[in-house]
Amino acid sequence: MALLRVDFYSRYLQRNVILTAVIPVDKMDGDKLAKRRQGPYRTMYLLHGLFGRDYDWIDKTHVVQTAEARDVAVIMPSGEDGLYLNKPEINEWHGKFISEELVEVTRRLFPLSRKREDTALAGISIGAYTALINGLLRPDRFGSIVALSGAFMRDRVLEAVESHSPRKRKYYERFFGDLDTVLGSEKDYVALIDRFKEDPTLPKPRFYGACGEHDNLCDNNREVVGLLRDADFDVTYWEPEIGAHEWPFWNAWIDCALDWFAPGEMRPSSAAVDYTALTSLRPPDEGKGIPMNQ
After folding, report:
1. Cross-strand pairs, 45
2. Is the pLDDT of residue 290 over 80?
3. CB neighbours (10 Å) of residue 204?
4. Which alpha helices (DSSP H) does the chain contain, by range?
5. What pLDDT is stored for residue 288 in this prediction?
6. How confident is the model over 37-54, as pLDDT tens digits?
7. Spatial separation of the C-alpha atoms in residues 113 and 143, rounded to whole Å
8. Best exposed site among 34, 71, 177, 198 by fewest CB in 10 Å?
9. N- to C-terminal Cα distance for the chain?
């Protein structure tokens, strides 16, 4: 697996952007180079969380080894607070950077597949919010969306709108822009999901989600899963009895998400608890820790 750091100028963000890319071109087979591969590769665009950076995935997970085992290229941009949303009222186009420019540039740089079924947008925490929003805005480009411990904060934003606390409102405005414009907009995942009900000709991305029962965002993830299922999306959702809002959980479940996106041999987790083992405990739809039906 080739590991590369890329620095390029973004016309949407009007600044230089750093990303990390892992491309499966030099896989080893024992002490020998494996059969040479040239692509095009299935690709997962992987977004970090709040106050994170692209290299978090390299430092805190074994996503490189997992992606290599499945011949998947992984593109990890370094974001501003992990939330890429368009804010047209202030001429900021972070969402278009993710869904348009980042994809176009990396496809020019690397031998990546251009098929939507080979292209996934994934994230953790607030990066999962971003992945859901931009994946729903560009279903023609992303055939899969992965959300791990998603910080789906629509209701909190609406509460901030109604709040008399300038501090609370200012906090959310740094992410969402003018809060009065969020409801029903492209930043509102409820409104975006409703579009698919109104227009059945829109292609629906497959959805994969996981959130531990001990995560305080669990209810928000259940809500999103329910909305997607009501709109007839193909949804796989896991809610293990262990796991909080933490890197050991994401380390293990990014393995599971990659296995779902590009099935292959599962690697054991390096976390203290092997979350990946939970995915084989029971057949689907029996008990807890398996895809939920709501």
Report:
1. 75, 121
2. no
3. 18
4. 56-60, 63-69, 94-96, 103-109, 126-137, 154-162, 166-176, 189-198, 218-230, 247-261
5. 40
6. 677 999 999 999 887 888
7. 12
8. 198
9. 39
